[in-house]
């Protein structure tokens, strides 16, 4: 976890999430433009010219870069493993700063990600049992072997 103040972490969170949401909208707009131009095609992306594909590819790359920054922030600041929890779209559009950093129960239960169940998401959203349980387990295991 980072040693920054809560207000500094909150500013970082807001800046990163705004960038991610903006990049996601730009990628969606670029894809929608291709779909609108080639409405007759079952797979319109196949018919897009190099400029149209390039515009979409650049927007998608920016979205991916922003998503990586968001997950890096979560890795550094959150007690939960968001990479294996809620759907990415929900994290991008609905995760709040308070929920991102809390050890308590989340303010809302995220929808199940692909392959997950509602029960798994309720467990994911529940309060964490003890501080750094995974790291303390690793310390206990390593001291037993040594």
In short:
With 146 residues, this protein is an all-alpha fold. The protein contains 6 helices and no strands.
Order of helices and strands: HHHHHH
Indicate the overall shape.
elongated
Number of helices in the DSSP assignment: 6
What's the story with the biggest beta sheet? none
Provide the structure class. Answer: mainly alpha
Portion in beta strands: under 5%
Residue ranges: pLDDT <50 for 5 or more in a row? 133-146
Q: Compute the separation of the termini in Å.
A: 27 Å
Description:
The chain has 146 residues and is mainly α. 64% of the residues lie in helices and 0% in strands. It is built from six helices and no strands. It has helices at 6-37, 50-77, 88-94, 97-101, 118-125, 133-145.
Attribute tags:
mainly alpha, disordered C terminus, 0% strand, 146 residues, 6 helices
Question: Which helices and strands occur, and which strands form pairs?
Answer:
Layout: H1 6-37, H2 50-77, H3 88-94, H4 97-101, H5 118-125, H6 133-145
